[in-house]
Amino acid sequence: MRTTFQWSLGTRSLQLGQRTLIMGVVNVTPDSFSDGGLHFDRDKAIAHAVRLIEEGADIIDIGGESTRPGAHVAITDGENHVSAIANPAVTAKEELRRVIPVIMRLKKQIPGAVISVDTYKSVVARAAVDAGAEIVNDVSGFRWDREMTRTLAELQCGAVLMHMRGSPDRWRTLPPPGNVVELVKSELAQWSEAALNAGVRRDRIVLDPGFGFGKRLEENYPLFAHFEELAALGFPLLAGVSRKSFIGRMLAQNRTDAPPEARLYGSIGAEVALILKGAHVVRTHEVEPAVEAARVADIILRQR
Fold it and tell me: Which of 46, 88, 254, 275 is most exposed, with the fewest beta carbons within 10 Å of its own?
């Protein structure tokens, strides 16, 4: 059985562990790898978010900047640790223009919706929470913007701290990670400790190992096999594998790759495996199938 947590979002909390929560993805971008351009129009983005809630999404994760490979230029040290983004793919002003109206209109249309903003920029995080978001989902692990941890401590919202090796512009040239499981565990422990020291409360943080983010195709499967070891860090766990390229490559077999839209069944299989290994939240593009699959996995977990 998974450890249970109360994920504090400020004015309310979400119970984690009794059942798997489903986070539905809404990319308000023209270039995301999985659905770029499909919901770039504001009205389409809102309609898609509403549909995901109707399908059973517990959280809607709204993002305005793609983190596809090659999208950013980073400042790194000699060990490929990113300290800042020198050339973001999208400016803060443009990201705000994309996501804030969607958050505000969705919150007006469905006041009870739990909204997450997918951003590594503290100014976007602050504006999004002011507009009605209750979670900041930061793919950089709170590291690309030096103001992020202080901002999160002040906002007192929920936060997802994700692991990423390097930055998207350097993923193709990163050296092998060695023991990827130990690396992810060690760095998540360091980065979460830094967040706690900066004033972000423990009950506001969820950890994400960052499948596919700086991990080559075959490097992701040890993270699957040992996912339950991340529970030792003492935080709830989020898993995002939906439509990822390592699933597409495995499904393609003799072909180069399976396109994102052909990765549904592989994604659902991966999500169920991770739920059985302790994931509290699953971030997915395919909400209705994920809800049904999670329901079955949760029943199995309760029998243990």
Answer: 254
**Catalytic residue chosen out of the listed positions 165, 215, 249, 283:** 283
Q: Which of 244, 249, 263, 277 is catalytic?
A: 244
Q: What is the pLDDT of residue 295?
A: 98
Q: How many CA atoms lie within 13 A of 175 on its CB side?
A: 6
What CATH topology corresponds to 5-302? TIM Barrel (3.20.20)
Distances from the Cα of 183 to the Cαs of 214, 219, 248, in angstroms? 12, 12, 24
pLDDT-based confidence at residue 29 (cuts at 50, 70, 90): confident
Instruction: Name the pTM for this structure.
Output: 0.91
Distance CA 31, CA 214 (A): 19
283 is catalytic: yes
Name the region of 218 (left: φ>0; alpha: ψ -120 to 50; beta: rest).
Answer: alpha
Domain boundaries, the chain: 5-302
